[in-house]
Design a protein that fits this description.
Length: 390
Amino acid sequence: MLRRWLDDVGTRRPAVFALVGASVAAAAAILWLVCTMWPLDLEIYRSGARALAQGEDVYGPLPPTRAGLILPFIYPPFAAVLFLIFAAMPLPLGAMLMLAVSLTCLCGTVYVVVRPHAGRRTAVLAALLIGAGSLAFEPVRETLWFGQINLLLMALVVIDCLGPRTRLPRGVLLGLAAAVKITPAGFLLFFLLKKDFRAALTTVVTFVLAGAAGFVIAPEASMKYWFGGGLTGASGMSGSIFATNQTIQGAVHRFGLTDAPTLILVAVLTLAALALTVPAMLRADPPMAFLLNATAILVCSPISWSHHWVWIVPAIVLFAARAHTRNAVAGLAAVAAIFVIAPHSWLPKNGYLELSWGPVEHVIGNSYLLLALGFLGWQCYSTRRHTAAV
């Protein structure tokens, strides 16, 4: 399906008309975002960076946001250093900068995924078109609205793992992404299972050097983050019952299960997800193995807010390249629709209302998670069957 569409994009007139239409739609969406933006996460980034610059406690109580919320800064000191650029400018200007960076990274991610299937010019056009269309996905919408860094981190990881070889050693960008937010370190599994040990080592070295830079610039904050409880600063939210937390732990806690045996249940389910992931990754080609890795990180993390699921964008593109039947296209469209609609957002939520969900609401409210687990199981089965047939 994707290749046929790319062939159409590659012809000049349809591409121009499509690009104009997509640009108008994207401009309208961006205008709406700018006018209604509530960059809550960007406010936290700025507060953490300002605390660092003023010699205050980065991981202590921060000033309330414009909405009156007092939230902690939970990123490493290295990230606080990078966020200084946002602290140095007014919030509206910082929001515009974050929006521009995020949209550029979104299109860059799509370009890397599309490029193996098309020429450079066609890939650029496709990246702009698909990037504009991706604004419809709830994870992308929420990321832009909150001023989150999800799209930037995704671009760093995708370029490092799936992009063409450059003078920059593989692993550097992943190491930097992990130094900003620990979660991308999970993609070490991709390099290790590919037996690209040099890239894995480069990732670790880059991560350590970035952390060391944090110690040099902010020694007290670094000590507190790495050795004084800052690393677990979000532990009170782990397994949050909020509907937007689409993880195994979140789903279990929404049943009201929070006692010690529940930890065992979560551990068993997490190990089961990994048991599906690793064999499938070993048998899959690099793009699919990468997607499996991303999925496992999302479902196994204590918290994966719905806006963390921006990985749906490269996932849709990769599956579109492999959708050769009507049933496959229909299935892909159904999955895309779920990430546009975001079923969990239509259910009773917040204020512990998730604890009152019935069976049907649990299914609807865990739609991202259930799709992801189904994908892991399907890939484990299908890759094993394909390997056996060969």
